């Protein structure tokens, strides 16, 4: 009898304590989530009054593709044809085609693993001087960020993957220099590293390029 009474007392005391611990933990987690979701205070009322907005992936996916419903730009493709195209329909400007004029071309000889590597180059992109980034590959998170920026801000950027031989061929056309991801991480991006495409027209399968490179001799 005494043993059973001990069990009953233990349950009577332990269950409320367990429920209380669960409630306290849930409240703590909810407070932490709210703090993480809110903008940190900077100590300046003018700054703290500016509450940033956050765009979810669902909201990005709900936006229309840039240029996805328009007709392709008129006129035949001209220039040198290359056997690679842009990596996603979101990089198109008109009807599935990315049609750019006077584009800066950034060539990377290995994989782009983080968006940090591209922050400097992306800051140079303008409607008057769009940016083409050609790399061996892009990390899925980087590609997703570039696509989101296309949909939300219409950032004038096209992402392309090319193998080493194709990169060398492109360099012959547009000039510039094939950099490494280590160069980008170190912030080394000299003016002579940029290529220039007078005309760039790509779809998901191929690209036509008119370059501005003048081979020496």
What this model shows, in words?
Keywords: Membrane, Transmembrane, Transmembrane helix. InterPro entries: GroEL-like_apical_dom_sf (IPR027409). The chain crosses the membrane at residues 6-24. The protein has a domain at 61-211: GroEL (3-Layer(bba) Sandwich), CATH 3.50.7.10. Strands 1, 2, 3, 4, 5, 6 and 7 form a 7-stranded mixed β-sheet that branches. A hairpin with a 4-residue loop joins β6 and β7. The protein has 7 helices and 7 strands, in the order αααββαβαβαβαββ. The relative contact order is 0.16. It is an alpha/beta fold.
Write a brief caption for the model.
The protein has 217 residues and is α/β, with parallel strands linked by helices. Helix content is 37%, strand content 21%. It is built from 7 helices and 7 strands.
What would the principal axes of the Cα set say about the shape?
Answer: globular
Oligomer: single chain
Termini separation comes to 105 Å
Mean pLDDT: 81
Q: Give the class from helix and strand content and strand pairing.
A: alpha/beta
Instruction: Detail the poorly predicted runs.
Output: none
CATH H-level homologous superfamily name of the domain at 61-211: GroEL
- Count of individual beta strands: 7
The biggest sheet amounts to: 7 strands, mixed
CATH fold annotation of the domain at 61-211: GroEL
- Named at the architecture level, the CATH assignment of the domain at 61-211 is 3-Layer(bba) Sandwich
Q: How many helices?
A: 7
Radius of gyration: 26 Å
- The proportion of residues forming helix, as a percent range, comes to 25-40%
CATH class of the domain at 61-211: Alpha Beta
> What sequence of helices (H) and strands (E) makes up the elements?
HHHEEHEHEHEHEE
Approximately what portion of the residues adopt beta-strand conformation? 15-25%
């Amino acid at each position: 009898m005494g043993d059973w009474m001990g069990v009953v007392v233990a349950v009577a005391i332990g269950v409320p304590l367990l429920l209380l611990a669960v409630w306290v933990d849930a409240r703590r987690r909810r407070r932490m989530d709210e703090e993480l979701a809110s903008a940190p205070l900077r100590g300046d009322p003018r700054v703290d009054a500016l509450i940033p907005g956050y765009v979810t992936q669902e909201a990005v996916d709900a936006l229309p593709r840039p240029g996805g419903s328009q007709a392709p730009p008129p006129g035949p493709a001209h220039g040198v044809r290359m056997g690679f195209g842009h990596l996603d329909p979101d990089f198109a400007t008109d009807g599935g085609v990315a049609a750019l004029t006077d584009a800066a071309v950034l060539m990377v000889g290995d994989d782009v693993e983080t968006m940090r590597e591209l922050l400097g180059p992306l800051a140079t992109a303008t409607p008057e001087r769009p940016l083409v980034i050609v790399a061996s590959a892009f990390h899925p998170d980087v590609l997703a960020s570039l696509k989101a920026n296309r949909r939300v801000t219409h950032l004038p950027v096209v992402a392309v993957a090319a193998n080493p031989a194709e990169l060398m061929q492109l360099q012959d056309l547009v000039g510039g220099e094939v950099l490494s991801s280590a160069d980008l991480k170190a912030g080394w991006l000299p003016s002579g590293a940029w290529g220039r495409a007078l005309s760039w027209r790509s779809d998901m399968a191929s690209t036509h390029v008119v370059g501005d490179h003048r081979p020496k001799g």
